[in-house]
Design a protein that fits this description.
The chain has about 220 residues and is an all-alpha fold. Helices cover about 55% and strands about 0% of the residues. A two-stranded antiparallel ribbon has the order 1-2. The termini are far apart.
Length: about 220
C-alpha cells in the first residue's frame, strides 16, 4: 500500500536527521581519537631516562656555564662570608639599629642559647645535661675575635658545632653576631661607655647587667629541674 505524500515527507526528515546525528558522532569520535594520539605520542623528555635526541643520551641537560640561581649571586664577600681578602674582619656589613639587636637577641635565644646559655658563658641546657661545654664568649680568645668570626662559625660550623646556614638567614646571622659582641661588651661595661645625653649611673648599669644575667641563669636552672 503506497504511503501518502505527508507520510513520505516525515519519514524523509527522520532519515536526514538520523544521518546528521551519525555524521556528527563519527566526526566527534575522529577528533577525540586524534587528540588521544597527540597526547600519548607527543615528544617529551622524561627525567633521568635515556634520550636519543642528544649525543650523550641524557634527557637532563647541564646548566649553562656561569649560571647562578636567583638569590644566590653572593657578590659581597663581607656580607656572605664575614671575610675580606680571605681574612675575618671586625666589621659589620650594615648598620645595626636597636631593632636589629633585638632581633639578634631573639634569634640567639632560639638557636644559640641551648648550648651557649642566654648570657653566653657556655653553660646552656645542653651542657647542663651532660654534653661538652662550648667555649665562653668571655674567654680572651673570643673577646678579641673579630665579629666576622662569629658569622663565619654560624655559616660553616666549628668543631662539634654544625653550621646554621640553613636555619638562620644571612642578615640574622649578622644580627646574632652583633648581639654576641654586645654581650661581650656588657661584661665590663662602664659609665663612660654610655652615649652622651643618657644619664645612667655606672653602678646602676652594672647592677642591671648582673640582674639580667642572674635572671637568665635562674630561668635555665628552673627548666633543668
Amino acid at each position: 500500500m503506497a504511503k501518502d505524500p505527508m507520510t513520505r515527507k516525515i519519514a524523509g526528515k527522520k532519515l536526514v536527521g538520523r544521518a546528521a546525528i551519525l555524521l556528527v558522532t563519527v566526526a566527534g569520535l575522529a577528533l577525540l581519537s586524534s587528540c588521544r594520539e597527540d597526547m600519548q605520542n607527543q615528544p617529551k623528555f622524561i627525567p633521568l631516562r635515556e634520550n636519543s635526541f642528544y649525543p650523550d643520551g641524557r634527557s637532563a641537560r647541564p646548566t649553562v656555564e656561569g649560571t647562578i640561581a636567583r638569590g644566590q649571586l653572593q657578590d659581597d664577600p663581607l656580607l656572605y662570608t664575614g671575610k675580606v681578602d680571605g681574612k675575618e674582619v671586625d666589621q659589620l656589613p650594615f648598620a645595626m639599629s636597636e631593632k636589629d639587636l633585638a632581633r639578634g637577641r631573639e634569634r640567639f635565644n632560639i638557636y644559640c642559647s641551648p648550648c651557649h646559655s642566654q648570657v653566653g658563658d657556655g653553660n646552656g641546657m645542653v651542657a647542663q645535661r651532660g654534653f661538652k661545654n662550648p667555649p665562653s664568649y668571655y674567654e680572651p680568645r673570643l673577646m678579641t675575635a673579630p665579629v666576622g668570626h662569629f658569622f663565619n662559625v654560624m655559616t660553616n660550623g666549628w668543631g662539634a658545632m654544625g653550621d646554621y646556614s640553613a636555619q638562620v638567614p644571612v642578615a640574622d646571622r649578622w644580627r646574632i653576631a652583633a648581639y654576641i659582641r654586645a654581650l661581650q661588651l656588657s661584661r665590663n661595661a662602664k659609665g663612660g661607655d654610655v652615649a652622651p645625653g643618657q644619664k645612667v649611673a655606672m653602678q646602676e648599669s652594672s647592677q642591671s647587667v648582673a640582674k639580667a644575667q642572674t635572671a637568665a641563669q635562674g630561668a635555665e636552672h628552673s627548666e633543668a629541674k
